[in-house]
Amino acid sequence: MKPTKIRYQVLFLIFVNVVINYMDRSNLAVAASEIDKEFQFTPVQLGLIFSAFSWTYLAFQIPGGILVNRFSPRILYAFSLIAWSLATVMQGFAKGFATLFGLRMATGVFEAPAFPINNRVVSNWFPDNERASAIAVYTSGQFLGLAFLMPVLSSIQLEVGWKGLFVVTGLIGIIWGIVWYIFYRDPHQHKAVNNAELQHIESGGGLLDKQQAAKRSAFRWADLKAVLSYRKLWGIYLGQFAVNATTWFFLTWFPKYLVDYRGLDFIKSGYWASVPYLAAFIGILCSGFLSDYLVKKGTSPAKARKWPIIIGLLISAFIVGANYVNTPGLIIFFMSLSFFGIGFASITWIFVSTLAPKHLINLTGGVFNFIGQLAGIIVPIVIGVLASGGSFAPALVFVAVLGVVGACSYIFLVGNVERIKIAGDE
């Protein structure tokens, strides 16, 4: 019997989830200049608002990882999508710093389980040798979606204002949350999947929920201690911080950088801003499919999985080149080169399912995202402080240095690519 291909339909659903996820993270960046004009925020205040999402997103990563281990992705993701989208709608009615800061924090709370759910779904639906490609496809949603959405979001704001922008983007998420609940099912509950596809997935190391079902138990502090005790895992945690550092620059300060520090008008900045996202999209697809191709051809995981991440993080440091050019085309060239590098490095989630103890994959994913999302708090605030003097050059140097640090963490800390085995694993 020929295997069905239902896993690719599931991958499409996750892809759209990620597009909406990042749309609701980045709509503030599009609206920032207009919000700034209305409320007269300082750069430091604006940096704090940019970081507000990550304060709670960070705080709820480990609780989110626990929830992902306890509840069905169908139910938890639908709830998460609808709840963060309602918070997004309410941002359109913000009256000042406090309410906008609080609503961004609420958005972070409800988005927290999203990427651990993505990792759980892909680990269940895809065998090991297809997983990097699957992760690359759904992760590319943040880049491809924003590449096309930046001009669209700019146009929406031009028509209905910054308040209407939040209402429109929030309503889209509410509708999609209902769509997810209607169509998503786990592998053994999906009526359209056949036994041949299930066997293909399981024989390749997928269906991890089935493997762990008998062993799933309540959260233990010893489990958290375990996933914080290994150098390999700290290597990927620090690497994720570096990847997110550059990503959060693009999700927060980048449009304002183009308009207020480089003098581009608002509509042109929307089109220019889309180019680096396209570069990142190309980068992650190249990385994911190249990595899986190398594994299938017998290349060691250390080379096939690690080196795209290391090379990508080093390329991301070229963002500093924008400090030495003045024409829009060259500025965007260095920004695009940097974001291509981040795209090339963004298969990092493969190491959660590859290195983590089998019964702690979801918890490891929560810690991985928790430490990575520290960048969402630290980077926007530090950039606001560094840009307070009127020059954005120190901020770009800061982002570039973090890219080099991330590459070093994969070179010197991760070491051999092999699963950590502890008590509780088979």
UniProtKB/TrEMBL annotation:
CDD domains: MFS_ExuT_GudP_like (cd17319). InterPro entries: MFS, MFS_dom, MFS_Na/Anion_cotransporter, MFS_trans_sf, Sugar_P_transporter. Residues 10-418 form the Major facilitator superfamily (MFS) profile domain. Keywords: Membrane, Transmembrane, Transmembrane helix. The chain crosses the membrane at residues 6-23, 44-63, 75-94, 165-184, 234-254, 274-295, 307-325, 331-355, 367-386, 392-413. Pfam families: MFS_1. It is a multi-pass membrane protein. It is found in: Membrane. Its main location: membrane. NCBIfam families: 2A0114. PANTHER family: D-GALACTONATE TRANSPORTER (PTHR11662:SF333), SOLUTE CARRIER FAMILY 17 (PTHR11662). This is MFS transporter.
